Amino acid sequence: MIRRLLAVTLLVAACRPAPVREVIPRLPGDGTANVEAPPTDEPPRPAAKDPWSARTDLIAAPPAATPAAIKLPPVERWTLPNGLQIVAIKDSRLPTLSMRLAIQAGRAEEPLARIGVAELTANVLPKGTRTKTALQIAKAIDFVGGSITADASLESTWVTCASLAKDAKTCLALLPEIVTAPRFAADEVSKAKQLMLTDISRRLDDTAALAAAHVQNLLWGDGHVRGWVTSAAYVNQLQPTDLASWHKAWFVPNNAVLAVTGDFDLPKLKADLARAFGGWKKAKTPPRPRYQEPAPIAMVRLVDKPGLTQTQIRVAQLGLAHDDPRFFASLVWNDALGAGGFASRLMKVVRVAGGKTYGASSAFDRNAERGALVATTFTRTEETLATLKLVLGEFAKMAADGPTDDEVAAAIAHVAGSYTLHMTGADELAAALVTADMHGLSQAYVTDYPVLVGKVTRAEAAEAARDVLTPGKVVVVLVGDGAKIAPQLTAAGVAFQRVAYDAPIGPQPGGDKPSFDAAKVAAATKVLDAAIAAKGPRITSIKALRMTAAGTLQAQGQTIDVVFKRTLVLPDKMRMDINLAKQFEVAIAVVGDKGWQLGPGGLDDIPASQLPALAQQRFVDPELVLVHARDKGVTAALVGVDKVDGDLCDVIHVMAADDLEVFLLIDQKTHLLRQTRYLNGANETRETFSDYRLVDGLQVAHHRVSTGGNEQSDLKVEQVEIDPVVAADAFAKPAP
Amino acid sequence: MARHSTRLAAAALALLLPATAIAQPAQPARPPASRPAPPVAGKPATPPKPGALKLPTVERFKLENGLEVAYMRHDAAPVVAVEVWYRVGSKDEPRDRRGSAHMFEHMMFKGTERVRPEAHGEFIGGLGGDVNAHTTEDATAYLQMVPVAQLDFVLELEAERMRHLLFRDDMIATEREVVKEEIRQQDNDPITQGLLRFLQIAYTAHPYAWTAGGAIADLDRTTAADLKKFYDTYYQPSNALVVVVGAVELAQVKALVEQRFGGIPGAPPPPRPAAAAPEPAQTAARKDTVAAGQIGIVFAGWKIPPAKHDDIYALQVLSLVMGAGDSARLRQRIKAADPKTKQPLGVEAASPILVREDPGLFLAIGVYRDPAGAAPIEAAINDELAKLIAKPPAADELRKAKNQVLSAFVFGLDSPLGLAEQIGQSWILTGDPGQFLRDVDAIERVTAADLARVAKTYLTPERATVVVVPPRSAP
């Protein structure tokens, strides 16, 4: 936001980033308590004499208040016939009225090809409707001294309008119109694109913003929406029609919540809102895209901007979803780690004891979906490695031991007290209630928050810290002078990737498929080696394989029996003989890039359009796919962790040339392949393997369940032959 | 976090800024327009009555040692905001100790005779409260917001650090590095460098030539003895204002402030180096270009009278007419397509006003991307001012600006901490903590002819200072 930038510029020049409403708590920490000696390479400073130890008249902290539930004022909730939910809290102290509409779609719903569309759409919303130009809207709201804004965040888009209560009719007219009937005029889209491009350019001069973009990309990867970074190339591609499509898909009343606060008359407000939003048509929203969570891996990225005198440091790992049962316990340990201002360990160790920084903190995202935990600090170039070590050291200590009793008490007092102190106005309450709604949390989440924080015990906090933190498997981003930082890392034996500060971040339009980080590829190699060892090493040397299985196939609402025999001869021959419903025999064979099929309908060549699907079948065969994953020209990367039947599995993304692609889920304990996931047309197919038995030195899954699209199969393996004798003519096309 | 600020820049810019902070997931919303009204000077006037609004009042009283106290009742929540304002900022610094006022602000958290280092902040945090500080050219302020029952506790802490700070060399050495990291954040930002250069050439004599950030070399020179001398000179009751806003009674505030601060002895008035360095009238335009950034920015600015001058009101309305809201003149001009080229001159514009105790600044800012964009933007700024001088704004446009002031004023009454800030700022700028309550009325009296007159008097090309941060050419 450039207007924000202008503000920041003037403020920064005068050294004050925060307007008074955003006062950052400056918090506990006496500089000595609970701090172990920082693991630094510097000689320790001689301890100064403590001038307070002998005093008996020190000012003491007042006792902390017992956390109590928040008392809500009357909250009015109703839903319009079109599905728009409304939350209203009356507050007549001041003659003002604020309306905030949350659309439940944001950057997380953007398709890769349309990165930036959520933000651009929001920015253009107030710039013209079917009946009003941008200037007319601006004049109307400016004349009453009000404000109208729209902003896209990760999971939602907020449109707000605020004015004096006597001018509420202005917001009641403008807000529904810009939300339901925006025009997306080409010249306004063009202006808004220029502003976004300016923000994107500006990021290269703003090391904190640059570090924030890189750390999300490094943590989530190019294959996850949270790893994508808005770039000039993507913004340049966006067209008014993209904005209109985005708006049409998501801006529907049944996907929105409206909060109204201030001085209103409830019956009149109900009538006004029914009139203002009544014509907004209900519609089904598209399915929300889902992504594979990344696996915890240690990676370091050095973003090189020559000449910088200060290094921005970020340390990140996966965090929590907002409704995670460990949420409140994690608030407590994270307050002790880095969210508690001067009471937190990061601040004490990096700022107070070391003088290495002005600020050090750690924060969880609060999203419906699982977010990140990011620690943030910065230091002069020479202290980069030493400061990073301090931060990593605190992560490790918190994971190992959790917070102390004193820290838990201080964190509860701070977190519960701060929530209580700030959750007093109608605006704050309404926003918290709407967010709770969108995150699937109840109103009790808001009212009981301080009480739930207060109930957290040291044991619970320590367990949550141990459970959530993954020390040793965090990603690190350093934005600074590469020539001076690289030697520090190298001398310490830290492996890192180095990128130029102005290099594109993450996937780019027209680029190749996402490429994998070396660390993820190396991690995948280890997992695959273990999987092959578990399977039986001879799998790498077999020449042919035949499997016979029987079971059922469900398709189009029918269940039929199936007997299935598949013969594979390496490198590129496959034949399948299938008996369906004990009646029909079908034979399919593929050799290289040709194939035939023989069935009740006769003998045919396989059409070219179906060959890729068969190639995919050959590629994902559960016996041989482990070997294929290590073939030349095939890339495999560890991209995540997921569960199959409750067991943790590493997720390996395997990509070969000619678009062959599969995810392998390999059991972390047994190292056996538990599931494959791949696209079959537009649908994802999942094949799940169980009942492993040893056959001639190979572990073979004897139960295979496949689901995908509208089909499901359930097969029991009856016979497996390793290197069978295969008839010479098995793959030859029969005579007609 | 102990920061410092140009509160006025914040106030002026807040009028321009959309409040988008509510889009943060699961965080309480901030009112979209919690914008403090511009704190300015003026003669007492009848308080305005916007709608049915019952206007709050500021009570003020003084202790024998010279400490001033301002109190406003605010019953919305069981909280109280307590601020202590010291009349000392970067303009009071010796020229070879730039940054010492801000560095001193950090010292105020580093321990007193009866409070361990950082414990002040720890105590407030344990109450769930907010605590911070800021330093500007004119003032240093310490703020807290706590449950109402803790008023006395906060006053005790503030009284303690007003006169019982401890100076220890090892603490100073470490904290100096912290302050340097705070300052270093702006080292590599071309836009910040551009603004700092702007101030440097706009002020040839007056210490407004530098900001509270100061200079790292000067910080290295600052000794414990310097800091102690600074403390004894400026951190005295007769140089301070205590502000209390919240759900407490006046009688209680009087008793507690007297009890906690009454015993502190008075002190002589401190020296005011800025008084000996008045800024001479500018008679020729000044221009400079600094190192390129990723985006281009034009800073144009004119010195304006001190806060107490009556023309400040008209200049504030002018700042709104030029830059507040999407429909404002300068923002429309810079962002609309040029009739000749069919391209907009730039991507964004603003016209903040920095009202200060001594002569402040009226700024016009344009943000652009085209490497050749600076000159047309500068010309457009001058042209917009010339148009306004030639033809004063119509009644509607003037009404719009006044409505913006009124609305911002009303939204600004919501927050105890925001009100305490306005009270402190009023005191620094005008000597009267309640002045901001009367400013709306004074703004109401501004005429269209006043706007043209002040533009013609102060915002002329020969009085302009322009600094350009050019955009790096496309690769």
Structural summary, described in words:
- The complex is a heterodimer of chains A (736) and B (475).
- Chain A has 736 residues and is of the alpha+beta class.
- Chain A is built from 20 helices and 25 strands.
- Chain A starts with a helix and ends in a 14-residue tail after the last strand.
- Residues 1-44 of chain A have low confidence and may be disordered.
- With 475 residues, chain B is an alpha+beta fold.
- Chain B is 39% helix and 15% strand.
- Chain B contains 16 helices and twelve strands.
- Chain B has a six-stranded mixed sheet, with helices on both faces. In chain B, strands 7, 8, 9, 10, 11 and 12 form a six-stranded mixed sheet that branches.
- In chain B, helix 4 packs parallel to helix 9 (250-261) and helix 11 (329-335) packs antiparallel against helix 12 (374-390).
- Residues 1-50 of chain B have low confidence and may be disordered.
- The interface between A and B is large, with 138 and 143 residues.
